[in-house]
Amino acid sequence: MEWLPPYSPDLNPIEHKWAGVKAIGEKRCSVDELFMEHVECVKLY
């Protein structure tokens, strides 16, 4: 077996993006606002 480091979400950049997506989803906004937030997130990549 190969040793793997313990899971560390703070070091994984995608976890920070998912946290942002979850925060957006928790805001009660319209579908149009959610879509525009998604577009802005995609532009960052």
UniProtKB/TrEMBL annotation:
<dbReference type="InterPro" id="IPR038717">
    <property type="entry name" value="Tc1-like_DDE_dom"/>
</dbReference>
<dbReference type="InterPro" id="IPR036397">
    <property type="entry name" value="RNaseH_sf"/>
</dbReference>
<dbReference type="Pfam" id="PF13358">
    <property type="entry name" value="DDE_3"/>
</dbReference>
<protein>
    <submittedName>
        <fullName>Transposase</fullName>
    </submittedName>
</protein>
<feature type="domain" description="Tc1-like transposase DDE">
    <location>
        <begin position="2"/>
        <end position="28"/>
    </location>
</feature>
<dbReference type="GO" id="GO:0003676">
    <property type="term" value="F:nucleic acid binding"/>
</dbReference>
